[in-house]
Amino acid sequence: MNPPGPLGVLEEKEEEHLSTPILGPSINSDNPQERIQARRLRIAARLEARRREALGEYLDGKKESEEDQSKSNKQKEESRLKLNKLLLCGTELVTNIQVATDVRELRRRVEEEEIRRQRLEKLENEVKTSQDKFDEITAKWEEGKQKRIPQDLWEMLNTQQVHCAGLIEDKNKLISELQQELKTKDDQYVKELKKQSDDICLLLERMEEQVKHVMKTFRQELNYIEKAFEVERQEMLASNKKKWERALQAHNAKELEYLMNRIKKIEDYEKQLNKQRVWDWEEYNMIKIKLEQDVQVLEQQLQQMKATYQLNQEKLEYNFQVLKKRDEESTVIKSQQKRKINRLHDALNNLRAKYNKQIKHFQEENQSLTSDYKRFVTQFKELQRAMRHFALVDDKQFREIWLMNEEEAKDLISRAFAVDRIIHTHHLGLPWTAPDFWFLRNVGPISQQPRKSAAQILEEVLMQADEEGTEEAASEAESYLDLPKQISPRTTRKILMLLCDESGFLIESKLLSLLLPLEKNECYLLRLDAIFSALGIESEDDLYKLVNFFLKYRVYHSPSGQEQTSLMSGQEPGEQIDLEEQEEESLVEGEPEEKEAPPSRRLIHPNDVLKILEAFVMGLKKPKDSQAPVKMKYVRDNLKDSEYWEALTTVIPDATQNLWDALYTALEKYHLVLTQRAKLLLENRSLEQQNTELQMLLQQYLDSKINSELQVPPTQVLRVPTQ
Amino acid sequence: MQETLATSTLLSVPSRSSISMQDKFSTAGQTSSAGPQPSRPSIIPPHNKSKGWNSGTKVHRMRRIIAEDPEWSLSTVPLLTELCIQHIVKNFHNNPILKQLLPEHQQKVLNHLSPALPLAVTANLIDDENYWRRCCEQRWPVCHVARHGGSWKRLFFERHLENLIKQFIPSTTDPAVILDLLPLCGNYVRGLRVDQFLPPVRLPPQPRSGELSDSGSEVEMEEPATDHYQLCDLVAGLSHLEELDLVYGVKDCGMNFEWNLFLFTYRDCHSLAATIKACHTLKIFRLTRSKVDDDKARILIRSLLDHPALEELDLSHNLIGDRGARAAAKLLSHSHLRVLNLANNQVRAPGAQSLAHALAHNTSLISLNLRLNCIEDEGGQALAHALQTNRCLTTLHLGGNELSEPTATLLSQVLAVNTTLTSINLSCNHIGLDGGKQLLEGMLENKTLLEFDLRLSDVAQESEYLIGQALCANREAARQRTLNPGHFMSPIIAKGPENLAG
Lengths: 723, 502
Known about the structure:
heterodimer, A: mainly alpha, 0% strand, elongated, disordered N terminus, B: mainly alpha, 9-stranded parallel β-sheet, disordered C terminus, cell projection (chain B), LRR_dom_sf (chain B)
């Protein structure tokens, strides 16, 4: 069925495929080398491009080296590409047959389709026509059934037969046609089979060829690659050899150079050595001569030394002997000393022991004594406390007793006075005046005035000073009563002011700042207070002592400062006035000490104040120290007591007493008279009373009823007494 | 030989000869006893014994002394182990001793075993490849061990089984012939390639008039009687079966050709469907040149739906039409099929469209072969549209499908977009000059395609050449990618299916 044409076309096409597009390495190639060369160039170019693309631009040197290296690689790559192509082409060549058969089959199918369609059409037409004919025939059969005439029937049968025969003939024709077709198909099938076998043969042939060719080319390429490697190796060997030779030559040249250098150096060194040797030789000789001379000198010296040595030896021997003797002596002495030391040591030890014992003993003693002392102290303290207590109690008791006694005495005295007054007024008819005595006013035990503290005195002094300006004369007499006799308040004040000004350092800075806003006097007061507290002045006495000290100091140091005072007197008239006043005062007071002092008083220079203070403090300390522990309690002096009590007893004078005695005796007598008279009067009165009573009794008796009842009335009886 | 040597030495050196004699006797005794003896029998004791034993005969034999043999040595005497091994080999059929031996002795035994031993003895006992290789080479002149996973034993059993199936005549041959073999070969057979199924022989061979037209009607009538061998039992016994390659036909029928020899009956079809459905290890199923029409294809494919292991389905050279193609499309979306071959069938545009629809959303199919169908431009366009979304297909064969320019236009767009396709075959179509140009344009934008067959498709030579250049560049790029790590595709793998098809 397939015409031989398509295959030929296919073949041609195959050829085209093979030859044109891919430059296939087909078997029948004219000049393979040329083609290979061309391919290689192309492949190399492509490879280069790809490498550039892939790796980017590298340095030229690197690329070169890469190229050098990759000669064999290049060959490998080329071979690989070539072989790839070969395989591809080969498979294409082989599969071409399949493709061709496919195409053929396709065409056959198309044709077959067409033919089948035609055949079907034909058959359908045939069927239609035959059906028509058949219908006609069957219709005629119906017709024939109706026919009665045999001739007609026969005729009809004949025609039917003819028709049937025609139909059958048609069918047979169709069948024969189809059979014809079938036969042609069979033939075609046989042809196709032949063709297929041809194709298969071709396929086998091609495959074999392909295999052979591929094997050949593989071998060839392998050879090429091997050659390339070989060449590369040779090249490498050659280049390496060259390099090696070059290096060897260089090495030899260097070696030669070094050798020459070495020889030259050796010569130099030899020369130098010779020179050095000659020079050394000379030097050696010189040194030798010198040394020999030295040796001679030294030998001489040695001889001398030997002589001295001999001498010294003898001397030393002698000395040695002497020393030996001395040594012996010294050993003897040493042993003696040792013994002595031993003894002394013993003594020392004994003494030490004793000493220790003593110490222990004394310590114990000391301890016991201290404990005793402590005990005594506590006892003493207790005693003191008791004493103080008792003193207080005594004092109180004393005071109470005193008060009691005094009260009693006063009572008595007042009674005495009252009696005296009555006597005077009533009995004597004299006017009576109450006697006035100091002790009558006294209440309680006679005591001294309490001492004033320094501050109080200060205050007073200062206050006085203020007042002085206004009323001098009036106040002076009174105020000075309080002050001690020796010192005038003004002097005191002056001294105190001076002290206050000069010894500001004793005052605390805080206080100073506080003092600023205060009045001048108060300011002084406070300052002095602080100073005194710093100096340790507490009481009035201390203050006076201070003032006295000042005065005394001035007295002692006056001779030196006399001239100064004269100079200064002009400058300080106020002071002079003071002085005069002081003199007046001292006259008033009549104190001899004061009189002595004035002339030098003004000589106290502010600069001396400190010295004076220092001396005072030093002086004050001593008495204070001795006085302080004693701290004597105030002891009452009972001298005045007896005087007081004596005075109390003599309140009523003796004249009055005498008077009283005379009065007493006279009154006694008067009293006696009066008592007798009174006695008598009393007797009289009692008698009268008895009388009345008796009368009343009688009456009573008489008035009683019994009397009437009685046989004998008393009245009758009584009448007898009455009668 | 041994005898002569023994005598000669015996005459020369009595003591030695006695040893050899003794040795011989002892070996004889051993063989007669047939018990496994210690592998190295001591030689010294017989030597000591022999002196007394031989003393009497010495004088008598001295007269026949021949020259001393200088080449004699103890090594020429076969060792007892050798003899034992020989004996074991000789009696292997009755008393197979192999596992108890030392490895080197095992090797010796295996080297000397006859390939003709019954399989019942050897099948499960011998794993040695060399033995099976000898077996194979003795039976078949050509053996492609690579097609059987490189295992000679597997090859032997697979081919043996294939031969048995090929020679099986239903209702004549005893099915036990095959089923008896099952326990022996069940563990080794992984693939079955049967290219012949004999029909049952009609006992009364009817005299043929030779009219071929009758045969078709007869076939129609007698179809139920022409069932072939049922594979169910066999396949159920093969626990490792992965590949099944069947052709329902008769080879070398010659002038005895009858149409009914090549019938794939419905019963065959049903039983085969049940068989492959039950075989969960099956990976490759091929049923070619067997006149599978739409209905049979649908029966088969229905049984393959959701098959756990199936990867390749080959129904080429059959009579499958659009309905069968639709069934195949359904299978695509209900399995993990990687290769589908429907070459040389009668798939037309609707079938191709349904296939394209399935392909658009498929993620497993790698290769699709629709060679020698008639999908025409409609089907081609549908497939091209599908390829715009598909990200899996690498190989597509559309040779001989009456495609023309519109398909080429769409395919050129696909080429610009798709990055998974490596091989396209458009040979034997009517692409035309313009179509070729368009394809060239698409090809210039593509960097992954490695093969593009445009032979006999009316494309201008210039564009074909340029396409070839682009393919070369792509191949080089792919090679670079494979040289650099992290790439998976190589042109050789992509080439594989086509080579097989060719």
